[in-house]
Amino acid sequence: MGTTQLETVPEPKYWHLKTVLSEALDQDFAVGEVLPNERELAARFGVARATLRQALEQLELEGRLQRRRGVGTTVAPPRVGVDVGGTRHGWPGESSDGWEAVGVTETLPPTAVLKLLGGAADQPVHTVRRTRVTHGQAVAAELLYVPAASVPGLPAIDAPAGPARARAVLRELQRLALDGQDRSVELGSARAEDAKELDRLPGAPVLVVTTRYFTAEGTTAVSVATYRADTCRLTFGDSGDVEITHEARVAS
User: Fold this and answer.
1) In the predicted model, is pLDDT for residue 252 greater than 80?
2) What is the CA radius of gyration of the chain?
3) 27-65 residue pLDDT tens
4) How many Cα atoms occupy the beta-carbon half-sphere of 123 within 13 Å?
């Protein structure tokens, strides 16, 4: 196969610098440590400040650095590892799943979710909003879509709006016999509401995990969970538990 045009393009200076800086972060700096100012760093690595800024911006996008107002640029902690590979997870809302109910509304689901649920286009569903927090930081926001037919006992429950009503939907869902679930993971952009909740700018890169829950009758609920791409990494294993762990970063 002949050499393509892309193969002849040299690696950008800032990209090479990003690799060098990444190794320096692993070897010379501790988590939370403030980096020297741009002038010092540019002199240390023998590059122009414009090149340095590009490299720092890329490292921030990848979650290696954090810019803190009044502090400066600091070394970010390791990404949060989220296990999404198990096939034996239970219903949402079980005590060990690490999510906190925020509220619930009755809304028409997005078209993509509607196709997964297989419902009527004009039929509202219970939409439960939850957040996932670790070490005091919100790392994910979830919308759980539950058709009324999946929780027929809900109207009889005297629960006010807000978290109490959301937890009531989850409890009713857990009364069903879960047959299985499937997941898909894709890169997306943060919607305005999710961005606010996750302390990100709208349009920031996020990881979107879509889960379908099945009973003998078919798809019973659909979860769309949005994870911060800069602080989270998804892990795939055989464990049935969803775990959040902090692990040491390995230099590449």
Assistant:
1) no
2) 22
3) 888 888 999 999 999 998 899 999 999 989 888 877 788
4) 12
Total structural domains within the chain: 2
Report the pLDDT averaged over residues 81-86: 58
Among 75, 93, 108, the domain-final residue is 75
**Residue 207's closest CA among 190, 222, 192, 223?**
190
In this structure, of 78-82, 90-94, 152-156, 164-168, the range with the lowest mean pLDDT score is: 78-82
Query: Does the structure show a pLDDT above 50 at 179?
Result: yes
* Burial bucket for residue 194 (CB in 10 Å: 0-12, 13-18, 19+): buried
Q: Reduce the DSSP state of residue 1 to 3 states and report it.
A: coil
Buried b (16+ CB within 10 A) or exposed e, 152-164: eebeeeeeeeebe
> In whole angstroms, what is the distance from residue 208 CA to residue 100 CA?
18
Domain carrying residue 35: 6-75
CATH number for the domain that contains residue 234:
3.40.1410.10
Q: Are 177 and 151 members of one domain?
A: yes
